[in-house]
TrEMBL record:
InterPro entries registered for this protein in UniProt: Haem_peroxidase, Haem_peroxidase_sf, Peroxidase_pln, Peroxidases_AS, Secretory_peroxidase
Name listed for the protein in its UniProt record: Peroxidase
Domain Plant heme peroxidase family profile: 43-371
Cofactor comment: Binds 2 calcium ions per subunit. Binds 1 heme b (iron(II)-protoporphyrin IX) group per subunit.
PANTHER family reported for this sequence: PEROXIDASE 25-RELATED (PTHR31235)
Length: 371
């Protein structure tokens, strides 16, 4: 364990002054192709804003960190936001567009109903607009803010290309039908990730993101009281854990959606300091996933809990039901370094999905609206 901890390279890395766990690894990003059948590196570059906005990545980093100090739930919210953006038609900030008279918004589809962090992105964007107006895309902000969030949650640093452009449309239908459900069986999850180029190992590692954040009762309530119409619990749930969950989530937590996320900021944020404290009472308490304090637990405890029948979502617990996926659950449960490396690589891949460049995209001035 000591040795493992010794080589457990994580959260203290910053891009400038530290080697990352990727330092010695050669990974072939040529294999990752975007929608246009061309590899992302033909469109994107490391340090794309080097000349146009040299402090862009630093501004994103420091703003996320400032907000995190006030509200640690900012980190999981931003990580989930990146997943929901990138998984639907690529990383193009389409998830941030508000509805208009002629366009429905991804924000309003069912799988996104408890998505948060839009106002955090607004704050970061306004900081960037002050320094370099009209330069940094909302799509880059999302993936870079998610990277910072992973670090804050105790995960690895991973290098990211930049230069993504923002979409001019929101994909309500696609988000409604293509975002995975917490009630999905393994085969559906595997298929859904495979469509986007992730194999089983990569899928298992990405779900390690569920090491952090909060899962509201409504997403696993059926497993506690009425699993598949049996009027009883999911037999794959550990019994002690079942009681623990039932004490947090009573029968009445089944139907109502979680209360709308409390605003993280004032309506027109211009500075990180305008953030409000976390004061709104959430009716559905949910379960915190930072098992033993975020920095220690990212990854490994999530997989260990799956091996003990203590996965919160059905979709999580399903990872132990397939031969190959279970092998990776076991591997990650016992090898922190392997998990951190794999998670970083799959986050890179996720962040490069369906990248847009001009003329198919733009740099939005306000992340909520098309220019
Ligand atoms: C089969 C795939 C997945 C499903 C069905 C799924 C579903 C969910 C659900 C239902 C929640 C609870 C939301 C709530 O209670 O408000 C959640 C939370 C979360 N998910 Fe996933 N998820 C999946 C994959 C991922 C991936 C790939 C990532 C990131 C790489 C991710 C990151 C997160 C995070 C960080 C949270 C906590 C959010 C917070 O506390 O604000 N998820 N997910």
């Amino acid at each position: 364990e000591t040795n493992r901890k010794g080589s457990f390279q994580n959260a203290d890395y910053s891009q400038e002054d530290s080697p990352s766990i990727f330092g010695n690894i050669s990974f072939d990003r040529k294999l990752q192709e975007n929608d246009m059948g061309r590899p992302p590196q033909e469109w994107l570059r490391y340090d794309y804003y080097n000349e146009s906005c040299p402090f862009a990545e630093q501004i994103i980093r420091s703003t996320v960190r400032e907000l995190y100090e006030l509200r640690p739930d900012v980190a999981p919210a931003l990580l989930r936001l990146a997943f929901h953006d990138c998984f639907v038609e690529g990383c193009d900030a389409s998830v941030l567009l508000d509805a208009t008279d002629v366009m429905e918004s991804e924000k309003d589809c069912l799988p996104n109903e408890s998505l948060k962090g839009y106002d955090v992105i607004d704050i970061i964007k306004s900081e960037l607009e002050e320094s370099c107006p009209g330069v940094v895309s909302c799509a880059d902000i999302i993936v870079l803010a998610a990277r910072e969030s992973v670090l804050l949650a105790g995960g690895p640093f991973y290098p990211l290309y930049t230069g993504r452009k923002d979409s001019t449309v929101s994909f309500f239908e696609e988000a409604t039908y293509e975002l995975p459900s917490p009630h999905d069986h393994l085969s559906k999850t595997i298929e859904s990730f495979a469509t986007r180029g992730f194999d089983e190992r990569e899928t298992v590692s990405l779900l390690g993101a569920h090491s952090t954040g909060t899962i509201h009762c409504k997403f696993f309530h059926n497993r506690l009281y009425n699993f598949s119409g049996t009027d009883g619990p999911d037999p794959s749930l550990d019994t002690e854990f079942l009681e623990q969950l039932r004490s947090k989530c009573n029968r009445s937590h089944a139907m109502p959606a979680p209360s709308p996320a409390p605003p993280l900021s004032s309506p027109s944020p211009s500075s990180a300091l305008r953030i409000l404290p976390n004061s709104t009472l959430v009716q559905d308490p949910g379960m915190k996933m930072d098992y033993e304090g975020p920095r220690k637990s990212f990854g490994v405890l999530y997989y260990r809990s799956l091996l003990q029948g203590k996965g919160l979502l059905f979709v999580d617990q399903q990872l132990t039901s397939g031969e190959e996926t279970e092998t990776w659950v076991r591997a990650y449960a016992s090898d922190v370094t392997l998990f951190q490396r794999d998670f970083g690589l799959t986050m890179i891949k996720l962040s490069d999905l369906g990248v847009r460049t001009s003329p198919m995209g733009q740099v939005r001035l306000n992340c909520r609206k098309v220019n």
